[in-house]
Amino acid sequence: MPTKIFEGLNPQQIEAVKTTEGPVLILAGAGSGKTKALTHRVAYLIKEKKVSPANILVVTFTNKAAEEMINRVTKLLGNLKFQMPNSQQISNLNSQISKLPWAGTFHSICAKILRREIQALGYRRSFIIYDEDDSLSAIKQAMDLLGIDKKQFNPAAIKNFISGAKNELISPSQYTKYAQGYFGEIVLKVYTQYQKDLKLANALDFDDLIMKTVQIFQKFPETLKRWQDLFKYILVDEYQDTNHAQYVLIKLLAAKHQNLFVIGDDYQCLPAGTKVLTPQGEIPIEEIKKGTEVIAANGFGTTMKAKVLRKSKQKYIGPVWEITTKSGKKISASKDHIFFSRLMPSQSQYFVYLMYRKDKGFRIGQTKGIRRTKQGIIHGLQVRANQERADRMWILEICSSLSEAKYYEYYYASKYGIPTLVFFRQGRNLQILQKHINRLYDTIDTKKRAKQLFLDLNLSWDYPHYRPQAVTLEFIPVHKGRQFVSLVMFGEAHLGQVNPWHAHRVRITTTDPFLRKKFEKAGFKTRADKRSWRVETSRKQYADALSLSHQLAKIDNLEVVKLARLTEMEHNLVFMPVTNLRKGMLIPIFKNGKIVEDEIHRVTVKNIEADLFDLDVENLHNYIAGGIVVHNSIYSFRGANFRNILDFEKDYPKAKVIKMEQNYRSTKSIVAAAQKV
């Protein structure tokens, strides 16, 4: 056995490394060691299976990730050195490149393929790749040529529509049936002229790199066959994040040998026996079929019927979290299944929290459940976050007394070596200067220490219990972590007649003047408020709202925070994995024909061996299970295209599916840690 390659791997990782032939789907969450499995698999193919590095294609979502992977593989292989291929090396496909592996992003790999093959489409190999500014200039030039007013029609907005079409492999001739209304006709005209201008300039934009590669493979089977024979082993990370063009590209390349290894996010589910509400009453989830109508929330406290588009099923051995509310509603779910929740301020509660600030790191503290301020009664986390301008906070414990809260504050601080000292002394009577506070947080690597706390308590970085609002009275670059795009499911007050559910609101509000310029340059209209500015709009389809949210977020590498307006209360509920739910928090339930809030009375964890199920519900993407409203997790709640994961299992019915346990830990240790919370 190749000891070095398998060193430090758990059984699931070893299985992923050794299963080299045929399609393999890895379902894994954050911290599960999926990247390590991919890296060791590449080394195993080269060293033990004697596969030529040139026959291995590794696709990542950043070139940095590809470089890091290459470096790790190089260390595992010892003296066997290799590097990423460049355009000149590709010119001799059969000799020079045989010593080199392929690793990079979809775009960088396609650029290298096109340097060899693009003449088939009438371009020269010396083609130019336009960056974003070049593309926008070319769009403006096409509009001038067509006599289209750039003040009336935003060039950046047209560019975004063209980019979306290319990601769906829609050419100008095919776009005719998608061009709706006058603006759609304008986009079609500009798209057609823009592509003509690009070809005359022997240029491609970023989206063309994948689209043109797919076109060559589809039009010229012999060319596709050559590249299929080269890429006998294909590995793709973050497979659920691939768009349609990327999905088709990989499907074409892998069609011959089918040695396709993809890593995707694990979807989370509910165990058999869970009762789902339908118009005919409650039905066990395992009896729900495609096309079955279920009752789902459609916003502002109301419900409606909605069809099930698909149902997932998987065998499972591991922990589930059981949630019981004060009114007796009960549901069990596997790790990370998404619920909706909010904190309920209470005079009798004390929060023990983990606070994060980008320039300081982490600290542990405690606060009252309710604090009285000039603005009224608010919960204690909000006060603490405002005092220290925190970026996000997680609840470690909810206690019934100050003494108990103090105990847990000192317990976690001592166990994990994370300070309790405040980030700022301003307004506090402390016997320590600010420069010494700064030195403490500069000296101690709190991020490394907090990582273990996250693992032990199953906390999720993406789902803190509290985030301060993105608006700051004065923009300071260090507070950039507080800016985010908010997506409120059913956030629009008006109820549609044709589509009788509330539309979904997308919004960003901040004071950052530099960010405002970036948004306007990208074609988004901004509105000025008294001290800030905002972009705010709505979409009827959740998928469209999700897509728009991520378009906005990509402009400056922001996060998307997802909320839901499910009850008549003015409060939005936060998307929250079941592992982050705590006693005393509020969740939505179905009662007397309405969606109302109920308090969590108990959270317990137990091990099970059972079939798990989840539903994808048309338009509304939620359903009522055990009397509690839950999000359907097979509809990507993080913006990923989970259809690609589902289609993988359909395209490759004999695929080996390997589930990786988060944090490499046994289910017993997960249960033990969770029970402490």
Protein described:
The protein is α+β, with helices and mostly antiparallel strands. The strands form 8 sheets. Strands 14-25-24-20-21-23-22 form a 7-stranded mixed sheet, with helices on one face. A 6-stranded parallel sheet has the order 3-2-6-7-1-30, sandwiched between helices. Helix 2 crosses helix 3 (34-47) and helix 8 packs across helix 9 (181-200). The chain is globular and about 75 Å long. The two termini are 41 Å apart.
The CATH architecture name of the largest domain reads 3-Layer(aba) Sandwich
According to DSSP, the number of beta strands is 30
Shape: globular
Total helical segments: 20
Q: Which fold name fills CATH's third level, the topology of the largest domain?
A: Rossmann fold
Keywords:
globular; six-stranded parallel sheet; seven-stranded mixed sheet; 20 helices; Arc Repressor Mutant, subunit A; alpha+beta; 27% strand; 677 residues; Rossmann fold; Endonuclease - Pi-scei, Chain A, domain 1
What's the helix and strand layout?
Blueprint: H1 3-6, H2 11-18, E1 24-28, H3 34-47, E2 56-59, H4 63-77, H5 87-90, E3 102-104, H6 106-117, E4 128-129, H7 132-146, H8 155-167, H9 181-200, E5 203-204, H10 206-219, H11 221-230, E6 233-236, H12 244-254, E7 260-264, E8 270-271, E9 275-278, E10 281-284, E11 293-299, E12 302-325, E13 330-334, E14 338-341, E15 350-357, E16 361-368, E17 370-373, E18 376-379, H13 380-388, E19 392-399, H14 402-416, H15 434-443, H16 446-457, E20 484-489, E21 504-510, H17 513-521, E22 527-528, E23 533-539, H18 542-554, E24 559-564, E25 573-577, E26 586-591, E27 594-617, E28 622-625, E29 628-631, H19 643-651, E30 656-660, H20 667-676
Parallel strand pairs: 1-7, 1-30, 2-3, 2-6, 4-5, 6-7, 20-24
Antiparallel strand pairs: 8-27, 9-10, 11-12, 12-13, 12-27, 14-25, 15-16, 15-19, 17-18, 20-21, 21-23, 22-23, 24-25, 26-27, 28-29
Helix pairs in contact: 2-3, 3-4, 6-10, 7-8, 7-9, 8-9, 10-11, 10-12
